[in-house]
Specification:
10% strand, 79 residues, 34% helix, alpha+beta, elongated
Length: 79
Amino acid sequence: MMLARTTDLVALTVAGWLDDTIEALGLRTFPIPLDLDPLYFGMAWHPRNSAAPGHRWFRDRLASAVTATVPTEAVPRCG
């Protein structure tokens, strides 16, 4: 969104996600005029980090942050 703010580029986000940030950056949103398949996110790491407590904590926090901020009825939008 920071890049979109200072260029003529378009950024994709989901409806209802970070509305305060979008407003604070002076961006606007609008529905995408076509059907899009859902995006799936994943994480990958080197196997030696699988049992590392700090790495596991970070992965858990990251996953929680992403799933907590994306509404289940999320609809892709341009912003």
